[in-house]
Amino acid sequence: MDFPILNTTAYGHPLVYLDNAATTQKPRQVIDTLTNYYLTLNSNIHRGAHYLAEQATEQYEAVRPQVCQFVNARQSCEIVFTRGTTESINLVASSFGQRFLGQGDEVIVSGMEHHSNIVPWQLACERAGASLRVIPFSDEGVLDLEAYRQLFTPHTRIVACNHVSNTLGTVNPVKQITEIAHLHGVPVLIDGAQAVAHMAVDVQEIGCDFYCFSGHKMYAPMGVGVMYGREEILNQLPPYQGGGEMIKTVTFERTTYNELPFRFEAGTPSVGDVLGLGAAIDFMQQQGIENIGKHEEELLEYATQRLSAIPGIRIYGTAPHKVGVISFLLGGAHPYDVGTLLDKLGIAVRTGHHCTQPIMDRYGIPGTVRASFACYTRTSDIDALADALVRIAPMLL
Ligand code: PMP
């Protein structure tokens, strides 16, 4: 495993990078793939009638079946490249909303969503005259499935829920959530932004209708993401953005649209980043996704023990099934102060509401400090965090 940036020295300390839920660092092979793309391959894809364009197109299109296999979709045309989870969800909320949401309709979201899986639905609801209904969760950070069942009405049109909470670390029972929705004939979108780097994802096993994720949280470059959609449902949706590539024919009177998945990929995509996503999948598969998950699970257990032993610490999100994310507060100290002091010791964590303000409101807190792990995190990183917290606590409490 070679992650050059992890050799950074921050304020005279070796960098301890514990902000992986925000973005993971990139392995050498992903960086090399990007560099090689711009050194040897750069060209606009599809319609190009020359050597570089053909090569670039071939390599770009080779990543599609790779992603298809990575999430076990039925076919490659169900894989749409986007800029990230946010764009993927906006695409679905916009197109699905236009086609299926009307006055008085309802959209179910969970109470632990990232703003990216709330606001696009609010926008779609505003346009349609529809409203949001919210699945509550317990103090531990577990969704209340009984309450969820009660939220369905004849007006429910779609359920949008994350696979893993970026703030609480909870792994949600997305298969069950999908089954319950399907009993009511309601499709389901899963926000997989925090899941794909930590566990094998099988969209057919989950049964969901849409699954969205970002490359940059799974060792790939920023600027690329995926929207998986079941073919039958994608075929019912109007295009999201208009422009090049998504059309079949254009006249000033009328435009006809391209087939899947190109109908949803308007304009020049970030070709190099898509190749980087392919390299990141190769990297993860070489490491073994199960191995990564197991390693992070052990780290989570170790970190939970070590942090819980520090006087004054409260951990938010203690669900039985979690990924390597620990949100906490240290006594009454403001999370930003904790983060700043840790930073000066070379420890990178995230502080604030983590784009989940409704979670903060649920607990009545302004934010948390969040440490999150990746395949390269070591127990020595956890020790550095715990030791630093013990050291700074007297300055804050
Ligand atoms: N959903 C979740 C659960 C996330 O953690 C994030 C990123 N923090 C997003 C959506 C948005 O991802 P992006 O910014 O890559 O579009």
Bound molecules: 4'-deoxy-4'-aminopyridoxal-5'-phosphate
- Give the terminus-to-terminus CA distance: 39 Å
| 3D shape | globular
- What is the chains' assembly state? single chain
For the biggest sheet, the summary is: 7 strands, mixed
Taking pLDDT < 50 over at least 5 consecutive residues as the criterion, the unreliable ranges are none
Neighbour order of strands in the largest sheet: 4-10-9-8-7-5-6
> How many E-type strands?
17
Mean of pLDDT? 97
Counting helices, strands and paired strands, the structural category is alpha/beta
Helical amount among residues, as a percent range? 25-40%
Taking Cα atoms only, what radius of gyration do you get, to the nearest Å?
Answer: 22 Å
Q: Helix count, per DSSP? A: 13
Strand content: 15-25%
**H-E string:** EEEHHEHEHEHEHEHEEHEEHHEEHEEHEH
